[in-house]
């Protein structure tokens, strides 16, 4: 795309955006840089939607085409083409942030770090106001070593738990805690300890149990697996103990009815709205309002049967990742479950985070009639020439005239890729092609070639050489039994597509982990300085 094709977009200032947030007007503030630079500095309610992934994510994350959208970068030249791309996708109210991120800084706007900053800041606010009990890593280890009457419940996603976990802990993702805890700790004397990787999900999980009035003593593991590691204590790896492998109370049991009653009380206290299917149908027909519809049960339950039009968003992660899952601040959120507990507990937190949130009541088993995962609504890719894995293999053997660009994530690329493929970011395509001067043809791939298909249109605009897309992507190459290689063998772009989280994985530097904790401790002060959040704590 050349600059003379660009539209002139109106701008919105920091002051206008701040006012809209305070008035709860619908607004999507989009940072279109890659995730790593986004995580270094951004406004509180900015959502990361990288330029190269707009076609893949925009329709699902910003469902209403006349949503007010504000796009920015930090001087990289990405905001204008991103705004143009959104306009081409049918979004009619696209703006640029006046002055970009620097304009936000210059106007006195607060700058946040990391990802999921709204949820993490909210978690710190909850702890500061409710004084959520916590135990240090050495204190928890001493209890476990003494074989004390304790259970450790890991509130993260199961894959995170499987990667590394507190010894003897059980995977109980956040929204499941109130529903499952009475089966996991039936004796009221049993101490319940909730952990995550850092702080937020253990605070929210522990406070959920306290808010729901369980009789057990409850504590968060202070600083989670980071705190455990910084204390010089060993984590376990590859564990598979999930709540479903322990006894789970059937619906209608005494424990389940207690959970239903207490979670409804918590939701009412937080002023959660109630809705039925008739109200939902009316909202679905509204043209001037965004309504997100989320099924907060486990992904497995969702796949087995869900309400049409609802997306899978397990409740604990929804509270943790509101900026990603619901980037339109000020939108309406409707939650569904089939147990009367998980939606209410999730909604109680979203309401405290300033969302208009409703729980769908009156649901019957027959309403959960759609199974699997619905097809993603995507814009059409530009026309492009396909090439089979076998033909590509022959071209690569014939010489250096073929340049193969891989648009998968850098993590996937390092894990495995076609020999000779170059990792490329679509947002840096002009620079990538400069490095590949002399090519006689370009072949594009990614895992499935979905993203590569969109990138083909960009390459065609920037080069006069033939452009092909690998049919079926790298997955088809693998299925054909063709060779692979791994490692950072050819990086045409830097690995900035994903921010390295100090709380994930097993090889994080001590300094990075400690710096992350120090940042979290300062979030309450940052919230006060920002002033736009609308959070409250019951």
TrEMBL record:
Domain Rhodanese span(s) in chain numbering: 23-113, 146-237, 295-367, 398-486
Region (Disordered): 241-265
Record flagged with keyword Zinc: no
CDD domains xrefs: 4RHOD_Repeat_1, 4RHOD_Repeat_3, 4RHOD_Repeat_4
Endpoints of the signal sequence: none
Record key words, sorted: Repeat
Protein name: Rhodanese-like domain protein
